[in-house]
Design brief:
The structure is a single chain. This protein has one domain. By secondary structure, it is mainly alpha-helical. It has 11 helices and no strands. Helix 1 runs parallel beside helix 10 (about 225-250), helix 6 runs antiparallel to helix 11 and helix 9 (about 190-220) packs antiparallel against helix 10. The protein has helices at about 5-20, 25-35, 40-60, 60-75, 85-115, 120-145, 155-165, 175-185, 190-220, 225-250, 255-275. The two termini are about 20 Å apart. About 80% of the residues lie in helices and about 0% in strands. It is globular, with a radius of gyration of 19 Å.
Length: about 280
């Protein structure tokens, strides 16, 4: 992989990781469209570290408050008294379902979608998942009350949104898409659903990145991989940070309709390309 391709895929990752349109789907679709080879472990780690950097930097104040409040609450034997400590425990609770499902199913999903075993069938599945989640998100927009702020998120919300996050293991669903959709069904305001989605995603991104990084450290990096690693990570971090800022600001006054339309359009286009054997 050359540096230009690394920058392109880094931008794709940074943008689509946080917008509700599925980063894993786009990282399958873009190489499939252009006939590019698999990016490999080193670059996957770079992309995870890039988006992790984006979310850690953007939410540094809240994450620091949580990191201080949780152990302080344990020492004081009042683990849920502080709102930030309570939020930390809610995020932990919401992260459990994805961790369990990921441990059981991640290898099979990775083989089918990312290792080439699924072929064009995998593209069809991705397209159908893009359309399906788009339809569910449209229903959520229709029935949601959009009235609960971030401060109202409780353990029940955390667990239910966490269950929705497990679906994001399937390319085409989208971590932010599934969790924002669940948040809307639970009555959260759009920007509150997005903010909680991003915070809930931190342990998942850390976990996925840590597993891949440990393997990479044992293997090492070549000089060529080092250049693409840095290019992809920095691009993903910068674009990801801008995507977070954009979406939170956008959802304060607008609906998710533009993303619903995009999901339908991309899904139908992929089905057309496969049906006509363009790819």
């Amino acid at each position: 992989m050359d540096v230009l391709r690394a920058i392109i895929l880094g931008a794709v990752q940074g943008l689509t990781e946080f917008l509700p349109i599925s980063s894993s789907a786009h990282l399958i679709i873009v190489p499939w469209l252009f006939g590019w080879e698999e990016s490999g472990l080193a670059f996957d780690v770079a992309l995870h570290l890039g988006t992790l950097t984006a979310v850690l930097v953007y939410f540094r104040a809240e994450l620091l408050q949580i990191a201080v409040a949780v152990p302080r609450g344990l020492v004081q034997r009042r683990p849920f008294a502080d709102p930030m400590a309570r939020l930390g425990w809610i995020i932990l609770l919401g992260s459990i379902p994805a961790a369990v499902v990921g441990f059981v199913a991640n290898d099979a999903i990775d083989s089918f979608f990312h290792a080439g075993e699924g072929g064009n069938t995998a593209i069809v599945v991705v397209a159908l998942l893009l359309i399906t989640l788009g339809a569910v998100l449209a229903v959520a927009e229709r029935v949601a009350r959009h009235c609960r702020p971030m401060e109202c998120v409780d353990a029940r919300d955390g667990f239910l949104v966490g269950l929705a996050q497990t679906l994001a293991l399937l390319p085409g669903v989208s971590r932010s898409g599934s969790t924002i959709t669940a948040g809307l069904f639970l009555g959260l305001k759009r920007d509150a659903a997005a903010r909680f989605s991003f915070l809930l995603g931190v342990p998942a991104i850390v976990g996925a990145g840590a597993l891949e990084l440990s393997t990479l450290l044992a293997r090492g990096l070549t000089a060529a991989e080092g250049r693409t690693f840095i290019a992809g990570m920095v691009t993903a971090a910068v674009v990801g940070y801008l995507a977070i800022a954009f979406l939170l600001r956008y959802l304060r006054t607008r609906s998710t309709l533009i993303f619903i339309v995009y999901r339908f359009g991309l899904g139908l286009l992929l089905l057309l390309l496969v049906a006509t054997r363009v790819r």
